[in-house]
Amino acid sequence: MTLQHYKVTPQSRVLVIKGAAAQAALGAQQAQQDAEEARLAHLDRLKATLDKVASRDGRGLTDKYEFSLENQAGTQMSLKESDRKALVLGLALHEKGKASLEAGRLQDALAELLLAEESCTLVNPSVMEGIDNVAMLLLDIVWCCYKLQDISRLGVCSDRLASARHMLETAHGSSQERLRLLHGNFSPEQATYVRLELLEGVVAFHSGEPATARRHLQAAQARWQRLQLSETALLQLAEMGYTHKESCRALRFSGGDLAAAVEFLTEQRVKDQEWRSQRKRQREWNNERTKYGKTASGKYVDQEALNQLCQLGYEKSLAAEALRQAENDAQAALDVLSSPVKRGALQLGIIAQQMLEETEGPQSVKASHVANLVTMGYKEKAARGALKATGDKVTAAIDHLQ
């Protein structure tokens, strides 16, 4: 049957009535569009929030936490502000993407991981040479594409996998010799390379390269076999008091050798204790430095410079104030401290500040925050004290005052 059979001509007027199926299709299309708009709005809010986080002054997420980057040897790396900001943003987005991936929100995960990749491209490549974070990010992106069964994306993921392999070789060594050098005679974990070989095989298969796919998948299987652990060895380590997680990691690092695994676990616990002690000292310093206030540019007193001045015999609070006024210029601070007249003026200033804080409360908190609390009926001195105790957070200060 054709329209001509029903005498419908180009001049005919046709009344079209939407059926239930058409209405349902339109409703589904609208729902999909609304969901996509909501997802994009969520990503915009997420990026704006994380951008603010990354813009904070080098301490990372809050005044209480320090952001630092270590290479494979555990050496802290020095970063330019632009690199630090881009890296913090990229790492935060990567963590958010991994959380979405684990929760099964694959579209959100892919969008967040791609934003993380974009941010990491802004970091100086020399910064990334000693770390493997971006390589892990690229593997997560390819894995997410695989989970989405997005063949079109998988077909172009070979470049990401090639970059990931290059980054891992740069960080670990072409035969992972750098990791072996760091860990003595221990063999490094193979899980990352199992994942890499597996994804390379999947991408090669979907790119029409069966021979290459077979080679990578066989390599992944061989590495996976080496990751399998002896139940007897795990039981023996458990009887020694080690957790299952500790035991698995130690056996994989030691290639299944029980004696080497015990040696690794002993050394690892010593390192963990040293790390916890270091973090404890860092937290104590983070709390202490708030007492000295910030420089005119908004930076805290530099701990290393302060320790150097204290070793010369100067009182800590006096040295801290000299550094604060000198914008952490250790030589300028030393010049002030070495001058009896300038040092005396500095001491008088500290005494005056102490007297002012005794009568009116801490002066280092934001005036706008104090004003907010005063308008709520709180006394100014109490408001200043609460803000000082809670890191200058209004909401927390209110809870503190109640």
Descriptive overview:
This protein has a two-stranded antiparallel sheet with strand order 1-2. Helix content is 69%, strand content 1%. It is mainly α and 402 residues long. The chain is built from 20 helices and two strands. The model is unreliable at 56-65 (pLDDT under 50). The chain has helices at 20-54, 81-102, 106-120, 125-128, 133-147, 151-154, 158-172, 177-182, 191-206, 210-227, 231-239, 244-253, 258-289, 303-311, 316-325, 330-338, 340-360, 367-375, 380-389, 394-401, and strands spanning 69-70, 76-77. Helix 12 (244-253) crosses helix 13, helix 15 crosses helix 16 (330-338) and helix 18 packs across helix 19 (380-389). The radius of gyration is 30 Å and the shape is extended.
Compact overview of the structure:
The chain is mostly helical and 402 residues long. The chain has helices at 20-54, 81-102, 106-120, 125-128, 133-147, 151-154, 158-172, 177-182, 191-206, 210-227, 231-239, 244-253, 258-289, 303-311, 316-325, 330-338, 340-360, 367-375, 380-389, 394-401, and strands spanning 69-70, 76-77.
Quickly list its features.
402 residues, mainly alpha, two-stranded antiparallel sheet, 20 helices, 2 strands, 69% helix, 1% strand
